[in-house]
Amino acid sequence: MPRICPKCEEFTLHRSHSQNALEQVIKTLLPLRPYRCSACQWRGWRLRERGTVNKSKALKTFIFYLSVFLLSLFFALYFLKDMME
Known about the structure:
alpha+beta, 2 domains, elongated
């Protein structure tokens, strides 16, 4: 399937890597993927192609990020409690 850049309308659009943890979470939870144009360097989000959803991997990634979030919250509250005393 040819990917056309929405900015320059060239056929040079390709998938881009996630730049940070927030983009990784968005990519995991939503049907979006980051793309970049080789011609004009446009970078943005587009819907992922059909049939590319790996539900098992998405669930494992979601559980991982939820665990990291809850663990971070626990430690933050634990240390805040110590600082308040």
